[in-house]
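Good morning,

Attaching, inline, the C-alpha cells for the sequence recovery test we're adding to the shared suite. The designed sequence is right after.
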C-alpha cells in the first residue's frame, strides 16, 4: 500500500516506487496505491494477505494515542486508527512493515503503555512488525525496506519472517556504516516481535 500524496501532508515521491518494487517481489501481492488506498480497501486487504507493507505518512496523536493513524487516501474522513487496527482479528498474518514516520510514537505519560500503531498491528495478529520511532527520510526508508525484503525473500513467493529482526539489523548496520555521523537517518527503524 502506498500513498504518495495525501491531503495536508508533504509528498512522498519514493512511496509508489517502493510499493511497486515490493509487489513485484511477492507474486499475488495486491497493490493499493493513492486513491485506491482507502480505509475500507486496506482493512479488506489485511484479511486476505499474510504480509502488509505501508509506504505512507503516519500521525501520532500524543493526547489520544488510540487516535494515532496511518495516512491513507481518505484519512480525513475515515482515518485508520490504532483503535481500528487493534479491533481486527487476523489469524493468518505474518509481517506488517510500516515504512512510515512515528509509528511507535506515544506521549511521555503513556510511554509504558505501548499504545501506538506498531502495537495495534501486533494486537490485530501480526507477530512481526517493523516501525519507526521518528521521522524517516523517504529515500532511506525505501532503501531499508527493500534490503529487508530481499533478505527475507525465499524465492517462492513467501518471506522467512523469522529472520525479520536480523534482516532489519543488517540493513540498519549498512546505513550506519554509510552515514556514521547521522544516526537520525538509520537509528529509528525497529522490529517488534519474537
Amino acid at each position: 500500500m502506498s500513498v504518495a500524496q495525501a491531503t495536508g501532508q508533504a509528498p512522498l515521491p519514493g512511496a509508489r516506487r517502493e510499493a511497486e518494487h515490493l509487489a513485484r517481489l511477492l507474486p499475488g501481492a495486491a497493490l493499493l496505491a493513492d486513491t485506491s488506498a482507502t480505509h475500507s480497501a486496506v482493512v479488506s486487504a489485511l484479511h486476505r494477505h499474510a504480509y502488509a507493507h505501508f509506504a505512507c505518512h503516519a500521525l501520532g496523536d500524543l493526547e489520544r494515542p488510540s487516535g494515532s493513524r496511518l495516512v491513507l487516501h481518505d484519512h480525513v474522513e475515515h482515518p485508520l486508527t490504532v483503535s481500528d487496527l487493534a479491533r481486527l482479528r487476523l489469524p493468518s498474518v505474518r509481517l506488517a512493515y510500516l515504512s512510515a514516520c512515528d509509528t511507535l510514537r506515544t506521549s511521555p505519560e503513556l510511554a509504558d503503555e505501548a499504545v501506538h500503531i506498531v502495537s495495534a498491528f501486533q494486537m490485530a495478529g501480526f507477530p512481526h512488525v517493523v516501525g519507526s520511532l521518528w521521522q524517516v527520510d523517504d529515500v532511506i526508508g525505501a532503501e531499508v525496506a527493500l534490503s529487508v525484503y530481499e533478505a527475507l525473500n525465499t524465492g517462492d513467493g513467501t518471506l522467512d519472517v523469522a529472520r525479520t529482526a536480523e534482516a532489519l539489523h543488517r540493513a540498519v548496520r549498512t546505513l550506519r556504516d554509510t552515514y556514521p555521523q547521522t544516526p537520525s537517518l538509520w537509528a529509528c527503524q525497529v522490529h517488534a516481535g519474537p
